[in-house]
Structures are given as C-alpha cells and as structure tokens.
Write a structure and sequence with these properties.
This protein is of the alpha/beta class. It has six helices and six strands.
Length: 207
C-alpha cells in the first residue's frame, strides 16, 4: 500500500518537519507501507487552469501522477491567514475530484497561534468531504512553541499525537485493504479509472 506524504507549502521548514516525523512513526510501525514524499518546495508546479495533462510541465505532471497512484495520504500544511496555502489548494485542483474518493486522508498542520488548529476543521475537512474522502478521527496541530530554534520538535505531547495519527492511518488503511481484492477487474471504479488515466498517457509517451 502506498502512502503519499505531502508537505503542502513552498516556504518554511516546520511543515516538512512535522510530515517527516509522522512518516518516521509510520515506518517504525509497518514495513508494508511504500511511502512517497511530496515536498512542494522541490517542484516547479504550475497553476491549475484546466489545460490537458500533457500541457503541464514535467514537475506538475509528476505531482498529478503521485496523487493518482497513492492509496492514502498524509497532508501537511501551514496555516496562512486562517487557511491553507495556495500551492496545496492547487494540488487539489490539479487532479480529478473522483481521484480521491473513498481514500483516507490524515492531516498535520502548523501555525503561529493556538486558535489556528480550527483551520483543519473549517478548511481541510470540508475539502475532504467534498472529495468523498475518509479522514482519520485525529489530526495533528503543531504550534511554533513546539519547536526549538533548529526546528526540531521538542514537545512530548505533540510527539504523542503524531504517533497516534500514524497509528490511525495504518489502522484505517489496513481495514480498507482487508475488504479489497487483487483482481484488476474487481477494483473499485475510481482506482481503475486512475490507472487507465495514467496508462493512456504513458502509451502516448506523455509524462
């Protein structure tokens, strides 16, 4: 099973630190998870404007492909002006809404005030609901005070919540896997359509 761990910002370091810490916990709990890291700081992502897949640059095509191929997601984001940053919203806009249906999302956010944790409830969960994705019961919110001057997490309570989020992601994905079959003809339609979408572009030497 493939997890896509997204650090959904092109500035700052704390979001990537939180995402990588969750990933480390996941790796310590299971060797069955293929984890792919998507740090938006490392990509020249173009704006979603409705153009065909092949018209985007290689970095943007790679982002779309990573999202479509993942089975479940860890989405990390800072809180800017009470909302998610534009690059993360752009990732959601680049993929067909059906691509995330019935897939699991776990959220890890960070911000400069304690009240900003509500952004997960007011922004991210409604997006997941619209996309018909499942969300973990818990999520992580990291405050600036939870880090030292080297952007290392030093708050034990936060580390405990991170461990719990990793546990929930594994538990929920394993539960979904228990109800799946390997026969391609019996795959849920969303997964099948995503594979067809990518296969057509590979056959056309696109991406």
């Amino acid at each position: 099973m493939k997890l896509l761990a997204i650090s959904g910002t092109i500035v700052g370091a704390k979001t990537a630190v939180v995402v990588n810490t969750v990933v480390e916990k996941l790796r310590g709990k299971s060797s069955d998870v293929d984890i792919d890291l998507l740090d938006l700081r490392e990509y020249d992502m173009q704006f979603s404007d409705g153009r065909p897949f092949e018209k985007y640059n290689k970095d943007t095509q790679e982002i779309i492909t990573k999202v479509l191929e993942a089975d479940f997601y860890l989405i990390g984001t800072p809180v800017f002006n009470g909302s998610i940053p534009a690059p993360l919203k752009n990732v959601f806009d680049l993929v067909p809404p059906s691509a995330l249906r019935n897939k699991i999302m776990g959220f890890a956010a960070n911000g400069g005030t304690y009240q900003h944790y509500l952004m997960v409830e007011n922004q991210l969960k409604p997006i997941a609901g619209y996309l018909r994705a499942y969300t973990t019961p818990s999520y992580v919110y990291a405050h600036t005070s939870h880090f030292n001057q080297n952007n290392e997490i030093v708050d034990e309570d936060l580390l405990g919540r991170i461990d719990h989020l990793a546990e929930e992601l594994l538990l929920m994905q394993n539960a979904i896997n228990a109800g799946k079959v390997d026969d391609y003809n019996n795959l849920p339609s969303v997964a099948k359509n995503n594979r067809i979408y990518l296969s057509e572009r590979k056959e056309a030497n696109i991406g």
